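Annual report, structural modelling task.

Input specification for the magnesium ion complex:
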Amino acid sequence: MSLAFALEKQVAISAVLRACSLTSAVFNKLVKNETLVKGDKSPVTGEHSTRVILASDTLPVADYSAQAVINVILAQAFPSDPIVGEEDSADLRNDADPTSATLRSRITELANEALALPLRDWEKAEWGIGPTHGQRTTFQLLDAIDRGNFSGARKGRMWTLDPIDGTKGFLRGEQYAVCLALIEDSEVKLGVMGCPNLPLKAGDEAGEKGCIFVAVKGQGSEQRPISSLQDATPIHIPTRPLSELRTLESVEAAHSSQSTTGRIAQALGITAAPVRMDSQAKYCSLARGDGDIYLRMPTGVGYVEKIWDHAGGSLLVTEAGGVVSDSRGQPLDFGLGRTLGENFGVIASGKDVHPSVLEAVRKARAEESQKL
Ligand SMILES: Nc1ncnc2c1ncn2[C@@H]1O[C@H](COP(=O)(O)O)[C@@H](O)[C@H]1OP(=O)(O)O
Ligand SMILES: [Mg+2]
Ligand SMILES: [Mg+2]
Ligand SMILES: [Mg+2]
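The model returned the following structure:
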Protein backbone atom coordinates (compact mmCIF):
# COMPACT_ATOMS: atom_id res chain seq x y z
CA MET A 1 0.00 0.00 0.00
CA SER A 2 1.47 3.36 -0.93
CA LEU A 3 1.78 6.09 1.66
CA ALA A 4 -0.64 9.02 1.73
CA PHE A 5 0.29 11.86 -0.64
CA ALA A 6 2.88 9.69 -2.44
CA LEU A 7 1.94 11.01 -5.89
CA GLU A 8 1.67 14.61 -4.68
CA LYS A 9 5.12 14.29 -3.15
CA GLN A 10 6.71 13.00 -6.39
CA VAL A 11 5.05 15.63 -8.52
CA ALA A 12 5.97 18.43 -6.13
CA ILE A 13 9.62 17.34 -5.96
CA SER A 14 9.83 17.14 -9.77
CA ALA A 15 8.23 20.55 -10.14
CA VAL A 16 10.46 22.21 -7.53
CA LEU A 17 13.54 20.57 -9.04
CA ARG A 18 12.77 22.05 -12.46
CA ALA A 19 12.10 25.47 -10.96
CA CYS A 20 15.42 25.32 -9.07
CA SER A 21 17.24 24.50 -12.26
CA LEU A 22 15.57 27.51 -13.88
CA THR A 23 16.37 29.95 -11.06
CA SER A 24 20.01 28.80 -10.94
CA ALA A 25 20.26 29.28 -14.70
CA VAL A 26 18.79 32.79 -14.46
CA PHE A 27 21.23 33.69 -11.72
CA ASN A 28 24.20 32.40 -13.67
CA LYS A 29 23.19 33.96 -16.96
CA LEU A 30 21.73 37.25 -15.86
CA VAL A 31 22.29 38.33 -12.30
CA LYS A 32 26.03 37.73 -12.46
CA ASN A 33 26.22 39.67 -15.72
CA GLU A 34 24.36 42.56 -14.24
CA THR A 35 26.68 42.63 -11.24
CA LEU A 36 29.65 42.75 -13.59
CA VAL A 37 28.20 45.52 -15.68
CA LYS A 38 27.28 47.56 -12.64
CA GLY A 39 30.45 46.68 -10.78
CA ASP A 40 32.93 47.93 -13.36
CA LYS A 41 30.72 50.85 -14.37
CA SER A 42 31.60 50.19 -18.02
CA PRO A 43 29.53 52.00 -20.64
CA VAL A 44 26.41 50.05 -21.41
CA THR A 45 26.19 49.56 -25.13
CA GLY A 46 25.53 46.87 -27.74
CA GLU A 47 25.11 43.43 -26.26
CA HIS A 48 25.29 44.85 -22.77
CA SER A 49 22.25 47.01 -23.22
CA THR A 50 20.15 43.91 -23.93
CA ARG A 51 21.62 42.25 -20.88
CA VAL A 52 20.78 45.19 -18.71
CA ILE A 53 17.16 45.24 -19.83
CA LEU A 54 16.91 41.56 -19.00
CA ALA A 55 19.07 41.67 -15.92
CA SER A 56 17.37 44.61 -14.30
CA ASP A 57 14.19 42.59 -14.66
CA THR A 58 15.83 39.43 -13.45
CA LEU A 59 13.71 39.25 -10.37
CA PRO A 60 10.34 39.06 -12.14
CA VAL A 61 11.76 36.92 -14.96
CA ALA A 62 12.87 34.20 -12.57
CA ASP A 63 9.79 34.43 -10.33
CA TYR A 64 7.29 34.39 -13.21
CA SER A 65 9.03 31.60 -15.10
CA ALA A 66 9.41 29.40 -12.03
CA GLN A 67 5.73 29.89 -11.16
CA ALA A 68 4.76 29.03 -14.75
CA VAL A 69 6.81 25.80 -14.69
CA ILE A 70 5.45 24.58 -11.37
CA ASN A 71 1.86 25.46 -12.26
CA VAL A 72 2.11 23.67 -15.63
CA ILE A 73 3.30 20.52 -13.85
CA LEU A 74 0.66 20.76 -11.12
CA ALA A 75 -2.10 21.36 -13.68
CA GLN A 76 -1.02 18.30 -15.62
CA ALA A 77 -1.04 16.03 -12.56
CA PHE A 78 -3.90 17.56 -10.56
CA PRO A 79 -6.06 19.57 -12.97
CA SER A 80 -8.77 20.43 -10.48
CA ASP A 81 -6.53 21.61 -7.63
CA PRO A 82 -6.53 25.38 -7.05
CA ILE A 83 -3.24 27.20 -6.41
CA VAL A 84 -2.46 30.20 -4.24
CA GLY A 85 0.68 31.56 -5.91
CA GLU A 86 2.55 34.74 -5.18
CA GLU A 87 2.77 36.07 -8.74
CA ASP A 88 0.22 36.95 -11.42
CA SER A 89 0.65 37.87 -15.07
CA ALA A 90 -1.11 41.25 -15.16
CA ASP A 91 2.11 43.25 -15.68
CA LEU A 92 3.24 40.84 -18.39
CA ARG A 93 0.09 41.41 -20.41
CA ASN A 94 0.43 45.19 -20.29
CA ASP A 95 1.57 46.20 -23.74
CA ALA A 96 1.77 49.84 -22.72
CA ASP A 97 4.93 48.80 -20.88
CA PRO A 98 7.72 48.42 -23.47
CA THR A 99 9.55 45.79 -21.40
CA SER A 100 6.61 43.40 -21.15
CA ALA A 101 7.08 41.82 -24.60
CA THR A 102 10.78 41.23 -23.83
CA LEU A 103 9.88 39.72 -20.49
CA ARG A 104 7.26 37.46 -22.06
CA SER A 105 9.67 36.04 -24.61
CA ARG A 106 12.37 35.48 -21.98
CA ILE A 107 9.85 33.73 -19.71
CA THR A 108 8.70 31.54 -22.57
CA GLU A 109 12.26 30.51 -23.35
CA LEU A 110 13.22 29.84 -19.72
CA ALA A 111 10.05 27.97 -18.77
CA ASN A 112 10.17 25.74 -21.85
CA GLU A 113 13.83 25.00 -21.22
CA ALA A 114 12.98 23.86 -17.67
CA LEU A 115 9.93 21.85 -18.80
CA ALA A 116 12.10 20.06 -21.37
CA LEU A 117 14.63 18.84 -18.81
CA PRO A 118 14.86 15.05 -19.12
CA LEU A 119 13.43 12.94 -16.33
CA ARG A 120 15.98 11.86 -13.74
CA ASP A 121 16.44 8.13 -13.11
CA TRP A 122 14.79 8.68 -9.76
CA GLU A 123 11.67 10.04 -11.45
CA LYS A 124 11.53 7.15 -13.94
CA ALA A 125 11.91 4.64 -11.10
CA GLU A 126 9.09 6.25 -9.12
CA TRP A 127 6.75 6.90 -12.02
CA GLY A 128 7.52 4.19 -14.55
CA ILE A 129 7.39 5.94 -17.90
CA GLY A 130 6.79 9.25 -16.21
CA PRO A 131 5.16 12.42 -17.46
CA THR A 132 6.57 14.46 -20.29
CA HIS A 133 6.10 18.15 -20.18
CA GLY A 134 5.46 19.44 -23.68
CA GLN A 135 6.40 22.92 -24.81
CA ARG A 136 3.95 25.72 -24.09
CA THR A 137 3.14 28.92 -25.95
CA THR A 138 3.65 32.28 -24.28
CA PHE A 139 -0.06 32.69 -23.57
CA GLN A 140 -0.38 29.17 -22.18
CA LEU A 141 2.44 30.06 -19.79
CA LEU A 142 0.77 33.33 -18.75
CA ASP A 143 -2.42 31.38 -18.10
CA ALA A 144 -0.39 28.88 -16.08
CA ILE A 145 1.00 31.72 -13.93
CA ASP A 146 -2.59 32.84 -13.34
CA ARG A 147 -3.66 29.45 -12.07
CA GLY A 148 -2.02 30.85 -8.92
CA ASN A 149 -4.83 33.38 -8.48
CA PHE A 150 -6.91 31.31 -6.08
CA SER A 151 -7.88 33.34 -3.05
CA GLY A 152 -7.52 30.55 -0.49
CA ALA A 153 -10.18 28.81 1.59
CA ARG A 154 -10.88 27.31 4.98
CA LYS A 155 -12.13 24.02 3.47
CA GLY A 156 -10.90 21.90 0.61
CA ARG A 157 -7.61 21.18 -1.04
CA MET A 158 -5.20 23.73 -2.53
CA TRP A 159 -1.53 24.28 -3.25
CA THR A 160 0.43 27.34 -2.25
CA LEU A 161 3.53 28.48 -4.10
CA ASP A 162 6.32 30.98 -3.67
CA PRO A 163 8.41 30.54 -6.82
CA ILE A 164 11.30 32.47 -5.27
CA ASP A 165 11.15 33.12 -1.57
CA GLY A 166 13.86 35.52 -0.43
CA THR A 167 14.29 37.49 -3.61
CA LYS A 168 16.86 39.74 -1.96
CA GLY A 169 18.95 36.68 -1.09
CA PHE A 170 18.55 35.36 -4.64
CA LEU A 171 19.91 38.58 -6.12
CA ARG A 172 22.83 38.62 -3.66
CA GLY A 173 23.73 35.02 -4.57
CA GLU A 174 22.84 33.95 -1.03
CA GLN A 175 19.93 31.92 0.30
CA TYR A 176 16.54 31.67 -1.36
CA ALA A 177 14.00 28.88 -1.65
CA VAL A 178 11.46 27.57 -4.16
CA CYS A 179 8.53 26.72 -1.89
CA LEU A 180 5.51 24.57 -2.66
CA ALA A 181 2.99 23.19 -0.19
CA LEU A 182 -0.30 21.31 -0.25
CA ILE A 183 -3.02 22.36 2.18
CA GLU A 184 -6.22 20.44 2.97
CA ASP A 185 -8.93 21.93 5.15
CA SER A 186 -6.45 24.58 6.39
CA GLU A 187 -3.88 21.98 7.41
CA VAL A 188 -0.52 21.72 5.62
CA LYS A 189 -0.11 18.13 4.39
CA LEU A 190 3.00 18.38 2.22
CA GLY A 191 5.86 20.84 1.92
CA VAL A 192 8.66 20.79 -0.64
CA MET A 193 11.36 23.45 -0.52
CA GLY A 194 14.28 23.71 -2.92
CA CYS A 195 17.34 25.60 -1.68
CA PRO A 196 19.87 25.67 -4.55
CA ASN A 197 22.47 27.68 -2.59
CA LEU A 198 22.28 25.86 0.74
CA PRO A 199 25.29 23.63 1.55
CA LEU A 200 24.36 19.99 2.13
CA LYS A 201 26.12 20.34 5.48
CA ALA A 202 25.72 23.46 7.58
CA GLY A 203 28.52 25.95 7.08
CA ASP A 204 30.35 23.81 4.50
CA GLU A 205 30.61 26.63 1.98
CA ALA A 206 33.31 24.81 0.01
CA GLY A 207 31.26 21.59 -0.21
CA GLU A 208 28.29 20.65 -2.36
CA LYS A 209 25.32 23.00 -2.39
CA GLY A 210 21.70 22.43 -3.35
CA CYS A 211 19.13 20.66 -1.18
CA ILE A 212 15.48 19.77 -1.44
CA PHE A 213 13.57 19.48 1.83
CA VAL A 214 10.37 17.45 1.98
CA ALA A 215 7.82 16.97 4.74
CA VAL A 216 4.60 14.98 4.69
CA LYS A 217 2.12 15.21 7.55
CA GLY A 218 2.63 12.23 9.84
CA GLN A 219 5.58 10.90 7.78
CA GLY A 220 8.47 13.09 8.96
CA SER A 221 10.90 15.47 7.29
CA GLU A 222 13.81 14.72 5.01
CA GLN A 223 16.61 16.33 3.05
CA ARG A 224 17.72 15.27 -0.43
CA PRO A 225 20.71 16.55 -2.42
CA ILE A 226 19.51 18.17 -5.66
CA SER A 227 22.28 16.18 -7.38
CA SER A 228 20.93 12.81 -6.22
CA LEU A 229 17.29 12.98 -5.28
CA GLN A 230 16.97 9.31 -4.39
CA ASP A 231 19.18 9.88 -1.31
CA ALA A 232 16.64 11.00 1.27
CA THR A 233 18.01 11.58 4.77
CA PRO A 234 15.48 11.99 7.60
CA ILE A 235 16.06 15.18 9.60
CA HIS A 236 15.24 15.96 13.25
CA ILE A 237 15.66 18.92 15.53
CA PRO A 238 18.35 18.03 18.06
CA THR A 239 18.03 18.76 21.79
CA ARG A 240 20.68 21.18 23.02
CA PRO A 241 21.25 22.95 26.34
CA LEU A 242 19.76 26.47 26.46
CA SER A 243 23.24 27.98 26.75
CA GLU A 244 24.24 26.55 23.35
CA LEU A 245 21.21 27.70 21.35
CA ARG A 246 21.44 29.98 18.33
CA THR A 247 18.69 32.11 16.88
CA LEU A 248 17.86 32.33 13.18
CA GLU A 249 16.43 35.50 11.69
CA SER A 250 16.02 37.51 8.49
CA VAL A 251 18.91 39.32 6.88
CA GLU A 252 16.49 42.12 6.05
CA ALA A 253 15.81 44.30 9.09
CA ALA A 254 12.60 45.46 7.39
CA HIS A 255 11.17 41.90 7.55
CA SER A 256 11.68 41.22 11.26
CA SER A 257 12.53 43.55 14.13
CA GLN A 258 16.16 42.89 15.00
CA SER A 259 15.93 44.95 18.19
CA THR A 260 13.08 42.74 19.44
CA THR A 261 14.83 39.50 18.48
CA GLY A 262 17.94 40.81 20.28
CA ARG A 263 15.93 41.32 23.46
CA ILE A 264 14.37 37.86 23.16
CA ALA A 265 17.80 36.25 22.81
CA GLN A 266 19.03 38.21 25.80
CA ALA A 267 16.04 37.14 27.89
CA LEU A 268 16.87 33.52 27.01
CA GLY A 269 20.52 34.02 28.02
CA ILE A 270 21.72 33.39 24.46
CA THR A 271 25.10 34.97 23.82
CA ALA A 272 25.87 33.67 20.30
CA ALA A 273 25.20 36.14 17.46
CA PRO A 274 22.03 35.43 15.46
CA VAL A 275 22.36 33.41 12.24
CA ARG A 276 20.94 35.71 9.55
CA MET A 277 19.61 34.06 6.44
CA ASP A 278 17.05 34.91 3.76
CA SER A 279 13.92 32.91 2.96
CA GLN A 280 12.35 29.69 4.22
CA ALA A 281 15.88 28.26 4.25
CA LYS A 282 15.63 29.35 7.92
CA TYR A 283 12.94 26.71 8.55
CA CYS A 284 15.11 24.17 6.71
CA SER A 285 18.17 25.06 8.78
CA LEU A 286 16.17 24.78 11.96
CA ALA A 287 14.67 21.43 10.97
CA ARG A 288 18.13 19.91 10.45
CA GLY A 289 19.64 21.52 13.56
CA ASP A 290 21.87 24.24 12.04
CA GLY A 291 20.12 26.80 14.22
CA ASP A 292 17.64 26.43 17.08
CA ILE A 293 15.10 29.24 17.28
CA TYR A 294 13.57 31.03 14.28
CA LEU A 295 12.37 34.46 15.35
CA ARG A 296 10.28 36.60 13.01
CA MET A 297 9.02 39.62 14.91
CA PRO A 298 6.75 42.24 13.34
CA THR A 299 8.39 45.57 12.62
CA GLY A 300 5.28 47.57 13.45
CA VAL A 301 4.39 48.65 9.90
CA GLY A 302 1.38 46.36 9.70
CA TYR A 303 2.83 43.83 7.21
CA VAL A 304 0.69 40.70 7.06
CA GLU A 305 2.54 37.43 6.39
CA LYS A 306 1.56 35.39 3.30
CA ILE A 307 0.63 31.71 3.47
CA TRP A 308 3.22 30.72 0.81
CA ASP A 309 6.00 32.11 3.01
CA HIS A 310 5.28 29.71 5.87
CA ALA A 311 3.21 26.69 4.79
CA GLY A 312 5.98 24.31 3.70
CA GLY A 313 8.54 25.52 6.23
CA SER A 314 6.20 25.20 9.18
CA LEU A 315 5.33 21.58 8.31
CA LEU A 316 9.03 20.77 7.84
CA VAL A 317 9.75 22.02 11.37
CA THR A 318 6.79 20.30 13.04
CA GLU A 319 7.54 17.00 11.28
CA ALA A 320 11.16 17.33 12.44
CA GLY A 321 9.91 17.48 16.03
CA GLY A 322 9.49 21.21 16.49
CA VAL A 323 6.71 23.66 17.24
CA VAL A 324 5.66 26.65 15.11
CA SER A 325 3.40 29.39 16.40
CA ASP A 326 2.98 33.11 16.07
CA SER A 327 4.61 35.40 18.62
CA ARG A 328 1.62 35.06 20.95
CA GLY A 329 1.72 31.27 20.86
CA GLN A 330 -1.21 30.91 18.45
CA PRO A 331 -1.03 28.30 15.68
CA LEU A 332 -0.55 29.66 12.15
CA ASP A 333 -3.96 29.77 10.44
CA PHE A 334 -3.72 28.77 6.76
CA GLY A 335 -7.49 28.93 6.25
CA LEU A 336 -8.02 32.68 6.10
CA GLY A 337 -7.16 33.30 2.46
CA ARG A 338 -3.85 34.40 0.96
CA THR A 339 -2.52 35.80 4.22
CA LEU A 340 -1.95 34.68 7.80
CA GLY A 341 -4.35 37.48 8.66
CA GLU A 342 -4.79 36.69 12.35
CA ASN A 343 -1.17 35.87 13.16
CA PHE A 344 1.49 38.18 14.47
CA GLY A 345 5.08 37.16 13.68
CA VAL A 346 6.45 33.61 13.79
CA ILE A 347 8.30 31.65 16.48
CA ALA A 348 9.66 28.21 15.61
CA SER A 349 11.91 25.96 17.68
CA GLY A 350 12.28 22.53 19.20
CA LYS A 351 9.38 21.41 21.44
CA ASP A 352 11.35 21.67 24.67
CA VAL A 353 12.41 25.29 24.27
CA HIS A 354 9.26 26.72 22.68
CA PRO A 355 7.54 27.65 25.98
CA SER A 356 10.71 29.44 27.17
CA VAL A 357 10.89 31.34 23.89
CA LEU A 358 7.27 32.51 24.23
CA GLU A 359 8.04 33.65 27.78
CA ALA A 360 11.09 35.55 26.48
CA VAL A 361 8.90 37.17 23.82
CA ARG A 362 6.50 38.37 26.52
CA LYS A 363 9.41 39.78 28.52
CA ALA A 364 10.91 41.54 25.48
CA ARG A 365 7.52 43.06 24.63
CA ALA A 366 7.01 44.27 28.20
CA GLU A 367 10.44 45.94 28.13
CA GLU A 368 9.64 47.59 24.80
CA SER A 369 6.28 48.91 25.97
CA GLN A 370 7.92 50.37 29.08
CA LYS A 371 10.34 52.25 26.87
CA LEU A 372 7.54 53.87 24.85
N1 LIG B 1 7.85 44.11 5.04
C1 LIG B 1 7.96 42.79 5.06
N2 LIG B 1 7.88 42.13 6.25
C2 LIG B 1 8.00 40.79 6.29
N3 LIG B 1 8.22 40.04 5.19
C3 LIG B 1 8.31 40.62 3.97
C4 LIG B 1 8.19 42.03 3.85
N4 LIG B 1 8.32 42.34 2.55
C5 LIG B 1 8.51 41.18 1.86
N5 LIG B 1 8.51 40.15 2.71
C6 LIG B 1 8.65 38.75 2.39
O1 LIG B 1 9.48 38.16 3.37
C7 LIG B 1 10.01 36.98 2.82
C8 LIG B 1 11.49 36.89 2.93
O2 LIG B 1 11.80 37.21 4.21
P1 LIG B 1 13.14 36.78 4.83
O3 LIG B 1 14.06 36.34 3.74
O4 LIG B 1 13.56 38.04 5.47
O5 LIG B 1 12.76 35.69 5.77
C9 LIG B 1 9.71 36.97 1.42
O6 LIG B 1 8.57 36.19 1.24
C10 LIG B 1 9.42 38.38 1.12
O7 LIG B 1 8.74 38.36 -0.06
P2 LIG B 1 9.40 37.74 -1.45
O8 LIG B 1 8.90 36.32 -1.61
O9 LIG B 1 8.85 38.64 -2.46
O10 LIG B 1 10.92 37.77 -1.32
MG1 LIG C 1 8.30 34.80 -0.05
MG1 LIG D 1 8.58 35.28 -3.70
MG1 LIG E 1 7.96 38.81 -4.04
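Residues 6-235 form a domain with the Fructose-1,6-Bisphosphatase; Chain A, domain 1 fold (CATH 3.30.540.10).
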